[in-house]
Amino acid sequence: DAGITQSPRHKVTETGTPVTLRCHQTENHRYMYWYRQDPGHGLRLIHYSYGVKDTDKGEVSDGYSVSRSKTEDFLLTLESATSSQTSVYFCATAGKSRASSYEQYFGPGTRLTVT
Amino acid sequence: GQNIDQPTEMTATEGAIVQINCTYQTSGFNGLFWYQQHAGEAPTFLSYNVLDGLEEKGRFSSFLSRSKGYSYLLLKELQMKDSASYLCASRFDSNYQLIWGAGTKLIIKP
């Protein structure tokens, strides 16, 4: 599996505060993704990156921003947290594989609670 | 949009065989993935199909029919540790995003 870490692993914050989640990978994968996972919805893409400084929006990007200043790190920022952003956040990476499948590998997740 | 449909929940008996189905829209299809996710953990990659047919990996096999927009994951000799959610995801066109199904929760009974 890809070496992917996320920090923090758990966070409780108050409505209106900014929050930054960090994803760090050691596999030199080109593609990185931020998802949120909520009961009944499966994984929903927030933002993704296809290279350093190259990012694009996913299906649920409102209220979130991202940055990727180096290959290893992909940051997700909630500018002003709301209770609807309480969720489990997963980072994933993908790189060229033997089968050219570009399967995604996931970090352990961050459980965020906004009170 | 490009919907991925799979059953919400299935129950099977330890030692038996179970088939989890997944359907997707065929337009622009470019690969089908299966992942396993235990409760409270991250998804882990199981299989990838892009051509028609069956891919076998030990107790797990995955099948694809591109013309029918259909895939299934077959789990044999079920063990209690196979209790998990199984996520189907598809890639469309040439981009590197995946569209995810909501997952099938598999409950294994002794």
List the helices and strands and how they pair.
The complex is a heterodimer of chains A (115) and B (110).
Chain A lengths: L3 E4 L2 E4 L5 E7 L5 E8 L3 E10 L2 E4 L6 E7 L2 E6 L8 E8 L10 E2 L3 E5 L1
Parallel strand pairs in A: 2-11
Antiparallel strand pairs in A: 1-3, 3-8, 4-5, 4-9, 5-6, 7-8, 9-10, 9-11
Chain B lengths: L3 E2 L3 E5 L4 E7 L4 E9 L6 E6 L3 E5 L2 E6 L4 E6 L8 E9 L6 E2 L3 E6 L1
How many helices of chain A does DSSP assign?
A: 0
**What is the H-and-E element order of chain A?**
EEEEEEEEEEE
Mean pLDDT of chain A: 94
Number of strands of chain A: 11
Envelope shape of chain B:
globular
Decide which structural class fits the backbone of chain A.
mainly beta
**Largest interface, chains and sizes:** A-B, 24 and 19 residues
Radius of gyration of chain A equals: 14 Å
Main sheet record of chain A: 7 strands, mixed
Q: Low-confidence spans of chain A: pLDDT under 50, at least 5 residues?
A: none
What is the makeup of the main sheet of chain B? 6 strands, mixed
Q: What share of residues are in beta strands of chain A?
A: over 45%
Q: N-to-C terminal Cα separation of chain A, in Å?
A: 34 Å
What is the average per-residue confidence, as pLDDT of chain B, rounded to a whole number? 94
Q: H/E order of the elements of chain B?
A: EEEEEEEEEEE
Q: Helix amount of chain B, in percent? A: under 10%
Total strands of chain B: 11
Q: Tell me the radius of gyration of chain B.
A: 13 Å
Large-scale geometry of chain A: globular
Oligomer: heterodimer
